[in-house]
Design goal:
three-stranded antiparallel sheet; 210 residues; binds BIS(adenosine)-5'-pentaphosphate; alpha/beta; Rossmann fold; binds magnesium ion; 9 helices; five-stranded parallel sheet; 47% helix
Length: 210
């Protein structure tokens, strides 16, 4: 299956992708994570992307599409993949259609009021990228990843003013592409619940995977 996960920042795309990887036996590709890796490795692309991410804006389409195209050529993507955070603009959606045929698009919905609370409590593993929350999904040992034992950190773009900017960018530039996929008959929706497991149930139901 070639699946796209849409949804506002903090909706739980990364968290639900972790479950879907096990269930569907395909990799999840987060363009946000690819970009953060490029920044920490100080690659040319990472240096170009940094100021956009820090301000909560989108990285220019041509940079992200190039990065994604390269990743999709890797062996593990040949039987399908989950795209987390791509496409994010109409132009990216059209470019993706030229690269491959997507099967389904799942939009995880969450009200703006909940997002600040979700993102201000998020802690992310430096090693494997797993996502935790201080209240909703705490790690067993404070600031240590349950899966790989790596240290947990706070993402640089999880500051309140950057979260607000990311949210308005989502409404302006990303949300409209739901109509594009609806017209193709590929869009389904799941509503973010207070509990991660309840959200997973909604996600599996929306995808017809219960
Ligand atoms: P990206 O990394 O994709 O960030 P995002 O879309 O803003 O989404 P997040 O990762 O913040 O949220 P999420 O939905 O994955 O939520 P999570 O599961 O962590 O992108 C970052 C930046 O990179 C962008 O701003 C942009 O600059 C750039 N970029 C990336 N892709 C791009 C593209 N295609 N084009 C251009 N630029 C691009 O959950 C959040 C928290 O809530 C966690 O702490 C989690 O534990 C908790 N939680 C999850 N589910 C629940 C639940 N049901 N109940 C309670 N808590 C929950
Ligand atoms: Mg994410």
């Amino acid at each position: 299956m070639k699946l796209v996960l849409l949804g506002p920042p903090g909706a739980g795309k990364g968290t639900q992708a972790e479950t879907l990887i096990d269930r569907l036996k395909i990799p999840a590709i987060s363009t946000g994570m690819l970009l953060r890796n490029a920044i920490s490795n100080k690659t040319e692309l990472g240096l170009k992307a940094k100021s956009f991410i820090d301000s909560g804006d989108l990285v220019p389409d041509e940079l992200v599409v190039g990065l994604l195209r390269e990743r999709l050529l890797e062996e593990d993507c040949q039987n399908g993949f989950i795209l987390d955070g791509f496409p994010r603009t109409q132009a990216q959606a059209e470019m993706l259609d030229k690269i491959c045929a997507i099967d389904k698009v799942l939009s995880i919905e969450l009200a703006d009021e909940k997002i600040l609370q979700r993102l201000s409590g998020r802690r992310v593993c430096n090693g494997c990228g797993a996502s935790y929350h201080t209240i909703f999904k705490p790690s067993k040992v404070d600031m240590i990843c349950d899966s790989c034992g790596g240290g947990l950190t706070i993402r640089d773009d999880d500051k309140p003013e950057t979260i607000k900017r990311r949210l308005s960018v989502y409404h302006e530039q990303t949300e409209p592409i739901k109509a594009y996929y609806k017209a193709q008959g590929k869009l389904c929706e799941a509503y973010g619940q207070e509990d991660v497991k309840d959200t997973t149930k909604e996600v599996l139901k929306a995808l017809g995977l219960e």
